[in-house]
Specification:
The protein is 30% helix and 20% strand. The chain has 187 residues and is an alpha+beta fold.
Length: 187
């Protein structure tokens, strides 16, 4: 069983296209594990039967905690783009969060703030390493933005829990952003 491919397909099903799998997310994004396994095994994509043990192995061995099992249900912890807004649990984040992105997006972000773009929420990282990894998906030497979460909360911005490394919010106005690292600016 290729667990990376399986993890990607589960993220696709639970974040972006549950209807392609005849799944319906509840308001926190959960689906019954049995229904997900049924859909994955019906598709004929996998040579061996996908089992709950495979899902558990993905969660315990992945370097990122993307999915969560609670009782007989599973959900994606962040990254959703489905039209139905997934309710996230509010929380108090660390005083500073980070966001890694491409240099080509920087001027737009410093003008408009961070927007969710294709997803439901803006995704922020708890540490520079995580933000760098996120940013490297788009830029070999990404810009790292620093977010003053205390000032943002004072201005009414609510933060929600993704996982231990990922926090989300609805938007992040430019007032609370500063450049922590850029290839163009030595900080
Ligand atoms: C950028 C992955 C122009 C933003 C990652 C980002 C993360 C703007 C891109 C998670 C903008 C959206 C989410 C604005 C934001 N103007 N560009 N005003 N506001 N952007 O993929 O944060 O591995 O939706 O900087 O690791 O990159 O799949 O968000 O570059 O944790 O589990 O628009 O997804 O997780 O891109 O990544 P994304 P993200 P997984």
């Amino acid at each position: 069983m290729n667990l990376v491919d399986l993890s990607k397909e589960i993220s696709y099903a639970l974040r972006h296209a549950p209807w392609e799998y005849e799944l319906e997310l509840d308001e926190q994004g959960f689906v019954p594990i049995a229904q997900l396994l049924h859909a994955l095994n019906e598709s004929g994509t996998y040579e061996c039967e996908v089992t709950q043990a495979d899902l558990e192995q993905i969660i315990t061995t992945s370097e990122k905690k993307r999915h969560e099992i609670v009782g007989d249900k599973i959900r994606a912890l962040y990254g959703h783009s489905v039209p139905q807004i997934i309710k996230k649990e509010p929380g108090i984040p660390p005083a500073v969060l980070y966001h890694g992105t491409a240099h080509k997006a920087l001027s737009q972000i410093l003008h408009d703030g961070l927007k969710p773009m294709q997803r439901q929420y803006v995704h922020l990282s708890a540490d520079v390493d995580t933000a760098t990894r996120v940013g490297k998906r788009r830029d070999g030497n990404p810009v790292i933005l620093k977010i003053d979460t205390e000032a943002a909360q004072k201005a009414g911005i609510q933060f929600y829990i993704g996982n231990n490394k990922v926090w989300v919010c609805d938007r992040m106005p430019k007032d609370f952003l500063s450049i922590f690292h850029s290839k163009n600016i030595a900080m």
